[in-house]
Amino acid sequence: MITNFQSDIESNNKKKGIVLTGRVHPGETSNSHVMESILDFLTGPSDEAKEMRDNFIFKVVPMLNVDGVVAGMYRCNHAGVDLNR
User: What's the rounded Cα separation, in Å, for the pair 20 and 25?
Assistant: First the structure.
């Protein structure tokens, strides 16, 4: 979870959530680079990133289909299921 943890609990409860997932399909290797850049930006020192952390809660799953990536599958997880369907 990425947000401004210095905010009080009440203001954090009012923030909208944004869910980011990557590597649903294991063959989408370029997505790992995109996700790394997103994480670097959101956790970085820029004014834009600070404003985003002040206003949103980001829930990030950088690699949703870990077993499919490890097994070298292209679209499915290790059980042969396409998690995007």
Answer: 14
